[in-house]
């Protein structure tokens, strides 16, 4: 018997009432979106100077190490997501993006990004039910989802993000909660808006099986944890997720006028699935 607990939304099928710090049983999927946009500051770094002799030794040592590394075959990196799950997530995002209403004039086709997938892997491996790491959240959007036990389809963890469309009225969120996961109450829609943020054209995800994972104060013996990172980040407060108009009528110049399935299309022959082959 599976247990499900959502932290921030109050779907119509929920029998129990939900409010701040409430503990709601019998839910299917839990999801938390990265809602706030943290302003990034500027910083500087300095490097210590070294003597010429030490620098020369370092260069020679690095060159020798490169030659040794090149002669040793590298083992294939273990991935935190299967190829079929990756395809399902990517296709579902693009289906949702292509069918927004009102129609989008500048919706960009979403592609898989290996760097984002690796950052998602690193965070999923922590099994922490929270957004992170903080230093990356200045630049990335992030959707999280978790459910107890195993899953039959990865879309069981992704579709609840789209389901929030019922609580969203374009162009700005209605009754969305921008303070989740710190203070959650009422319905949410910021998972959905991140999915359809026009300029968020890259995504990378990871799936992790977590044991004894703490989810809203309860310990789940076994949980399936999904982390998806997006770039460029969406959910900028005060901005609409896309421009309304004839599909592809306001695509960025770098797309060269290419349009496919109501989205600005980059004109590539693959969406980076070849990384899994």
UniProtKB/TrEMBL annotation:
Subcellular location: Secreted
Keyword Secreted annotated: yes
Stored InterPro entries: Allrgn_V5/Tpx1_CS (IPR018244), CAP_dom (IPR014044), CAP_sf (IPR035940), CRISP-related (IPR001283)
Any Pfam family the entry gives: CAP
Main localization of the protein described in the UniProt heading: secreted
Positions in coiled-coil regions: none
MF terms (GO), sorted A to Z: peptidase inhibitor activity
Keywords from the named record: Glycoprotein, Protease inhibitor, Secreted, Signal
Domain SCP, first and last residues per copy: 84-238
PROSITE patterns in UniProt: CRISP_2
GO cellular component: extracellular region
Entry's family note: Belongs to the CRISP family.
Protein name according to UniProt: SCP domain-containing protein
Organism the protein comes from: Denticeps clupeoides (denticle herring)
Gene label: pi15b
